[in-house]
Design goal:
The chain contains ten helices and six strands. By secondary structure, it is α/β, with parallel strands linked by helices. Strand 5, helix 9 and strand 6 form a beta-alpha-beta unit. It is globular, with a radius of gyration of 16 Å.
Length: 216
């Protein structure tokens, strides 16, 4: 393995949450008077933080989302996560292989710590990380596409940015990894390959089971 640390995004990379969360987000924004389709939610918000959602809605409509937007959104999302969230197919085997080879890995997600914990616990992946290897946009001043989160994760894990590989499925995340000076591997299960390539992905893959070979 040519990397000293693998940083995984959470939503859409470790857990198959993007269809659930974007379906709910589109419906919730529409209910609040900001008509949004599922496809628009994927295009505009996938990979970003809740603050990014607030900023975009305010910029487009001139109106702020209510103060309890995040709490309301997360209540809806967490209920669905606990009911039907599953891990991304093949990801358990990938984590097992990395552990067997002694390659450190961690999470670097735009989601809140609570969201990450709920998702990883429901899918049985939390024990593969533990709280000490989970990093959230809550930990830094700026979320993706700024490099802050990935640089913070690398620093906390004691690894130079140039020795890190990031696994991402959104253009925002790819851009953040590139800005951090890290190689980034674009997972194309939910996002067109061209969008990840245009954002600067080092390489692309469509099946999580392929990742260990791709990283060699």
């Amino acid at each position: 393995m040519r990397y000293d640390l693998i940083i995984f995004d959470n939503d859409g990379v470790l857990v198959d949450s993007e269809p659930i969360s974007n379906e709910i987000l589109a419906g919730y924004l529409t209910e609040l008077g900001h008509p949004t389709t599922y496809e628009e939610s994927l295009r505009d918000y996938m990979g970003g933080s809740v603050q990014r959602i607030r900023d975009i809605v305010r910029e487009r409509s001139g109106r702020a989302l209510p103060g309890d937007f995040e709490a309301g959104f997360h209540t809806l999302v967490f209920d669905e996560f606990r009911r039907r969230l599953e891990p991304v197919p093949g990801v358990r085997t990938v984590l097992e292989k990395l552990a067997a080879e002694g390659v450190p890995y961690c999470v670097g997600s735009s989601g809140s710590h609570e969201r990450i914990r709920v998702a990883l616990t429901k899918t049985g992946l939390f024990e593969r990380f533990g709280a000490e290897r989970i990093f959230s946009s809550q930990d830094v001043g700026r979320g993706k596409p700024a490099p802050d989160l990935f640089l913070h994760a690398a620093k906390e894990m004691g690894v130079e940015p140039g020795r890190c590989a990031v696994i991402e499925d959104s253009p925002l995340g790819v851009r953040a990894a590139v800005a951090a000076g890290m190689d980034v591997y674009g997972f194309t299960a939910m996002t067109p390959a061209a969008k990840l390539a245009d954002a600067g992905a080092t390489a692309l893959f469509s099946d999580m089971a392929e990742l260990p070979q791709v990283l060699q």
